[in-house]
Amino acid sequence: ILDDPDLKDIDPTVLKHCHAAAATCILEAGKQKADISAISTCLEDCKLDRERIEQFCTEYQKNKDALEILLGSIGRSPLHITDVSWRLEYQIKSNQLHKTYQPSYLVTLNVENSDSGSHPDVSFSCTMEQLQDLVGKLKDAAKSLERATQM
């Protein structure tokens, strides 16, 4: 969106806020299974002009089924990490046969969802710095949670 030449004169912060507002509107409409008249009324209350409302509703209607399928696959509660495993991967050569000698960590999070049981594991690769940053953020989160429960 920020690279669109038609939007180059708009402040990037305003553009991001507009994008977030539109995404929230679409998700809430999908979550509530809102019909076009309810969406139109809401957008009229937000002072959008008739042409934009019609365009929004047309696009929403075209993508409504896919949105509902996507929202249904997300579930109602966040995933719960039940276990974590990792291994060190050491890349010696790149696909261009240059020697690289880059260590990285392959991390696998075993997750489950209380709505539907187990889910496929979440796997990612990261450098030592990225892993240290993740561990630091997790420690900060644990401390914040500990402080919140002591109040």
TrEMBL record:
<protein>
    <recommendedName>
        <fullName>COMM domain-containing protein 3</fullName>
    </recommendedName>
</protein>
<dbReference type="Pfam" id="PF21672">
    <property type="entry name" value="COMM_HN"/>
</dbReference>
<dbReference type="InterPro" id="IPR037355">
    <property type="entry name" value="COMMD3"/>
</dbReference>
<dbReference type="Pfam" id="PF07258">
    <property type="entry name" value="COMM_domain"/>
</dbReference>
<feature type="domain" description="COMM">
    <location>
        <begin position="80"/>
        <end position="149"/>
    </location>
</feature>
<comment type="similarity">
    <text>Belongs to the COMM domain-containing protein 3 family.</text>
</comment>
<dbReference type="InterPro" id="IPR017920">
    <property type="entry name" value="COMM"/>
</dbReference>
<dbReference type="GO" id="GO:0006814">
    <property type="term" value="P:sodium ion transport"/>
</dbReference>
